Amino acid sequence: MKLRRLCSVHILTLWLCCQTALANPTELSLADSIQLAFKNNPILQIAQARQGQSAWSVKEAKAAKGLTLKYAHLDRRSTEPLSWMSSLEAISPANYFNNKLTASLPLYTGGKIENIITQADLGLQISELEIIAAKQRLQFETTMGYYGVLQSRTLLEVSKQTVDDLTAHLKRVQKMYDTGVVAWHDVLQTKVRLANAENNLVRAQNGYDLAVYSLNKTIGLPLRSELKLVEPLAYNPYPLTFEEVVSQGLAKRAEIKQTQANVRIKEAQEKVARSEQYPTVALVGTMTWQDTDFAGTNNRNWTAMMITELNVFTSGSTQAKIKQAQLGIVAAQEQVRQVEDNISLEISGAFLSMKEAEKRIATNKVAVEEASVNYKIAQKRYSAGVGTNLDVMDAELAMNQAKTNYVNSLYDYNASKARLDKAIGAVI
Hints:
Strand order of the largest sheet: 2-3-5-6
Helix content: 55-70%
Number of strands: 6
Low-confidence stretches: 1-22
Shape: elongated
Oligomer: single chain
């Protein structure tokens, strides 16, 4: 019995230690979160898999320029005479076995194979750029999620502080009512405001939990993992000017390079279409073995050929392909211009939003300081009997709103910075 109890105590101790270990929150900086997202998020894994597909497509395209060797074996039984036999009389029936080895090497294709290889190389380049673009999008999503947790956590702290302030104020009002200094109306008024604050606290807690779940999903952690974000929601000046961010965005953004590569793909497609106007030359060699006995390895013959082919008349098919390819080039060129315009607009919007939030940060910081002082004055005036409870409630509401505005302006500033970093193609 004692041994069983001892084992139970050890098991319970081990379980409690495990629970404590599991309950420890994961400490994360913004850079840590981004690296976790790069490692765990399927968006990047999909892009990397497609890049691997493109790399093998290049190998496939280049293989078309090399030597191909085919082997075929035929087993036949028929009453038809065999052409290589001395007698052409029908044999009823006869066995026939054939082995054929064919080697072929393209010598000239009018540029078709070369331009197909060019398309494959450009496709690989686009897939590599897609990895960069996926990292940019994933970094942006992670950064927004990280700042979203910081925002909701700070707003949760503001809500908790509001509840604490109103709870303390209610005790003072109740005490003043008990001594006959204030009316019951003041007690009821404070209780109602406290109840509203508690409702806001519940919503703030829910918003924080959802923000954590969203960030966990992005970085590949279990949804309910507890996080300890080590970076504050703070203001750090942005180092680049408007002209610098526009220039950097147009030079480094992966989407622009992708559309430019797509133009070159369309140009290569046009050359492939034109290649049908030119002859193709191939070197072909065959070696055959045939016999009436299995496995047909006697009666060897060989043939070497240089085959030249030219499409003389295609009913306009070749010209139609060329026209399609030419229009594809025009569309791809216009897409480059469209993407550049969209990115310029994206950069401008993010930069202006950042500057707007930057101005609001300074204004709201002063408003928080003044609202805090006003709240303390209202409390002292009420305690001294020269102010009303409504003055305290209004001052508390103004202070809460000022703190909320300050937190939101900090979030807006950092979110705009994240959008701007994505718009100019910055990757950690």
